[in-house]
Amino acid sequence: MPKIKRIGVLSGGGDSPGINAAIRAIVKKANWEGIEVIGFKNGWSGLIENDYIKLTLRDVSGIIQVGGTKLGTSRTNPYKSDKDIEKVKKNYKKHKIDALIAIGGDDTLGAAHKLKKHGIKAVGIPQTIDNDLAETEYSIGFDSALNIVMHAVDQLHTTAYSHHRVMILEVMGRDAGWIGLFGGLSGGADVILVPEENFEISEVEERIKKRAEVGKYFSIVVISEGAKPVELDQQITKDAETDEFGHVRLGGIGHYLANQLQEILHLPVRVTTLAYLQRGGQPTAFDRILATRFGVSAVELCKEGNFDRMVALKANKVVPVELEKVIKNSPKPIDKKLLEMRKMFY
Ligand code: F6P
Predict the structure, then answer these.
(1) Is 247 close to ligand 1, i.e. is its CB under 6 Å away?
(2) Least enclosed by CB within 10 Å: which of 63, 64, 69, 82?
(3) Given a cut of 80, is residue 86 above it in pLDDT?
(4) Strand 36-40 vs strand 52-55: parallel, antiparallel, or unpaired?
């Protein structure tokens, strides 16, 4: 196995708290092993445009607690054009990169996997607040986001019970309801609506009425942006625009539900959209440790020449899994038992 001398690193897709902790761990572990690190800026765009910085120990000092990503991120798809792929190959060679670590969700890691046939040796680190990457129990950012959702539900409770209102909290989660379900359960929400299960407005109404029957004149509804009532053919989107991976921007289901409920319940209903607040700020202790473990393990995989893999958390052990499997099996659906369990809590 030829000795690795230089590792490239990039972060792509939606940011989340904990990416910097992973970058820090990569640089520290690489330095420990006598390996140099180059950081490409703004996801795949950095490798296409040759926009990079050398990452030294000094660069990663004091960033474990800082959210977002020091390298910047973007939703650039290197497969958008053949020219871009050629540029990626050229810059990878130019910098004499022996291994590339890509930090991101299914789009970023999907591109890393595809690039294998172009000679790019990549290792992935799972990072998405959506926690919908398959083959890993946790992705960096999920725990931080869900804590923000939990606190938001706590905050909404006090104003909901004081005003006897129905409070709807719209959270992120395009195809998977991990944030909605875990955030809702931990905050004690009364109704949790997720993309995995289309819902009937009448079920929500019934639940709110049942609460009133036992003297509870307020309710908290947590709804994922990707959740859909049975009467709609499509998820509610902000506009028709798509990103380079073909994703539309979701948003608005909270207000849709509020309008429907207000008509049938004749109760005051208010909507809060958590949006980017749930992706911002400092990482939790869990995410800092997870990112640190993932960063160190990713460098180990590079050293071993174990490419086209993603570091994953399984039964609290960090293990390598095939990127191909991750891409094939994502989005990771919520456990059916947990989905069922939420129905008891109201
Ligand atoms: O990265 C995943 C995610 O958090 C989704 O839940 C959400 O739909 C999307 O990002 C929105 O991100 P942006 O507006 O930055 O593209």
Answers:
(1) no
(2) 82
(3) yes
(4) antiparallel
Quote the ligand 1 centre to 10 CA distance (angstroms).
Answer: 18
Residue 185 confidence (pLDDT) above 80: yes
Q: What one-character DSSP code corresponds to residue 101?
A: E
Neighbour order of strands in the sheet with 122-126:
52-55, 36-40, 6-11, 99-104, 122-126, 309-314, 317-322
**With bands split at pLDDT 50, 70 and 90, how would you rate the model's confidence at 1?**
low
Residues 311-340 have pLDDT tens digits of 999 999 999 999 999 999 999 989 899 999
**Distance (Å) from CA 166 to ligand 1 centroid:** 26
249 touches ligand 1 (CB under 6 Å): yes
pLDDT exceeds 70 at position 6: yes
CA angle 198, 218, 196 (to 5 degrees): 15
Q: Where in the chain is the domain with CATH 3.40.50.460?
A: 144-279
Q: So what's the pLDDT on residue 301?
A: 98
Amino acid, res. 96: K
- Tell me which DSSP letter residue 92 carries: H
Q: What is the pLDDT of residues 283-301, one digit of tens each?
A: 999 999 999 999 999 999 9
Residue positions annotated with a catalytic role? 130
Q: What CATH architecture does domain 6-140+283-329 belong to?
A: 3-Layer(aba) Sandwich (3.40)
Residue 128, classed as helix, strand or coil, is coil
Fold of 144-279: Rossmann fold (3.40.50)
Cβ contact 44:112 at 8 Å: no
Structure tokens at 115: 């690039």
Kindly write down the DSSP assignment for every residue of 231-264, as one continuous string: T-SS--EEEEEE-TTSPEEE--HHHHHHHHHHHH
The confidence score (pLDDT) of residue 99 equals: 98
**Of all atoms in ligand 1, which is nearest to the CA of residue 105?**
1
